[in-house]
């Protein structure tokens, strides 16, 4: 090591997010290295403590502060949050908000929705529910969406979507988390060229884009904003469960809101594109095949495109985001993320051929562009 150990802390303290000047790949690579550094330096007991003890105390504390509106009111904050840099201690019993705690107090940032969603939903797909469920099911890979860790762990013994449908607050925290997550991710329209959809002779008797499982419309609204002038009224369609659509705030001149259950036949026929963003990772292969076959039956051969924005797991070196999302899907919905080979098999099984896989530079999700047809045979 070239830097004396005593100087390392001083050097690290000087690094800030501004140093990267918007270079997201470099910022994320640095976080990864910093995390590896922590992993190398931590004693096993320190790591266990953080995972199994401290996290729950911090989440409980943050939730209480959000509930009480303490971040908005800037009152005295506690030592634990200062010790973990959620706030900054500037003098005895005096604390300053950090960008993170400010964001928690700013409802528009939707960060508080994440914390709430952790309490409302994510904890039921993890914790000891996860290990006990796997033990009780003889460590079989969960593939039955009706029998999930989540359902096993939650007090009502219901699946994620059923709980959201019964309790509006649970739907709200889930939807806020999804929108916040979408704002953070590289938007699919930034690495998939959306002009592809408009640069052919458009059939105006059918919609241009159907956002299937589009939640409260954050994705389709961005598409509308980008191509505002080129899009006739009513030619965008937002589909989801009625309870998710109840929270949609979209331009209803251009965007038609349509309740639709993905496991039933697709009512919108001959659209230019059917988009599924973070939808198939919620479903096992057999249910995904049902959804794909309903979509295929609605598509016009040679014209309609299928767009899937989801994780494509690399053969090696999956990021922590990708790997954690895979295990979360296992716990929440008995579902999974897929490798390119798994996507090829699933799509060809429903009569699709992949035209191109558009990759997110942040290496989180990709857009799989496909159409009806048989995949070309690869030369041996
Ligand atoms: C992980 S979210 C993705 C939402 C959105 N596409 C995004 O990327 O932010 C999955 C979506 O599928 C919807 N969903 C779940 N079951 C459904 C069903 N049977 N029919 C239609 N939509 C469903 C949920 O309400 C939710 O909005």
Automatic annotation (TrEMBL):
PANTHER family: O-METHYLTRANSFERASE AF390-400, PUTATIVE (AFU_ORTHOLOGUE AFUA_4G14580)-RELATED. It comes from the Eukaryota. Keywords: Methyltransferase, S-adenosyl-L-methionine, Transferase. InterPro entries: COMT-like, COMT_C, SAM-dependent_MTases_sf. The keyword Methyltransferase applies. SUPFAM superfamilies: S-adenosyl-L-methionine-dependent methyltransferases (SSF53335). Residues 206-353 form the O-methyltransferase C-terminal domain. It comes from Apiospora hydei. This is O-methyltransferase C-terminal domain-containing protein.
